[in-house]
């Protein structure tokens, strides 16, 4: 299934200044029964967002329940997405309409799951991450996937980030793995014809 293309993401951000956020905190195990990717956003950070698992009682101190914090970018502490390998964590973040997560370190499996589901994980230095957390709630971040840069608009600070070139191409074009193979079908056929000569 192809996804929305990602190139420039310019948005205010939601600061989650907590380290070692694991996938069970992102989407608790009791909400993993769904067979489609839809509907997981309502249970994103469920145990942190609501009191006694009652969705009618939001915890006012949690960042997603504070109206001043909104945007398409989640900025999180070091080691985001650790714990079990559940892909549902990426589904929940995407369903909540986040397009990118910024942290100084991502768990490998979570990072791959994010990339496979159209969510851009941006790894920055701890110093740059702290500069983001130091901004106010109206500050804007600009992420350019093509340039592989992230900019804090208020200060002009900029940092480059790394991404697998194949996954970059998929995100820029809104491809999943099958879409990507179809996009290079002519190249594959040409290679097979050449290989058949030897």
In short:
The chain is of the alpha/beta class.
Describe this structure in words.
The two termini are 36 Å apart. The protein is α/β, with parallel strands linked by helices. Strand 7 and strand 8 form a beta hairpin. The chain contains 8 helices and 9 strands. The chain has a 7-stranded mixed β-sheet with strand order 6-5-4-1-7-8-9. It has a two-stranded antiparallel sheet with strand order 2-3.
Key phrases:
198 residues; alpha/beta; 7-stranded mixed β-sheet; two-stranded antiparallel ribbon; 8 helices; 20% strand; globular
Topology diagram in text:
Layout: E1 8-16, H1 23-26, H2 46-49, E2 50-51, E3 54-58, E4 73-76, H3 88-95, E5 100-103, H4 108-116, E6 120-123, H5 126-133, E7 140-144, E8 149-152, E9 158-160, H6 165-173, H7 177-183, H8 185-196
Parallel strand pairs: 1-4, 4-5, 5-6
Antiparallel strand pairs: 1-7, 2-3, 7-8, 8-9
Alpha plus pi helix count: 8
Percent range of helical residues: 25-40%
Which residues sit in consecutive blocks of at least 5 with pLDDT less than 50?
A: none
Principal-axes geometry comes out as globular
What does the main sheet amount to? 7 strands, mixed
Cα distance spanning the termini: 36 Å
Widest beta sheet: strand line-up: 6-5-4-1-7-8-9
Give helix and strand order, one letter per element, not per position. EHHEEEHEHEHEEEHHH
Radius of gyration: 18 Å
* Percent of residues in beta strands: 15-25%
Structural class: alpha/beta
**Mean pLDDT value:** 90
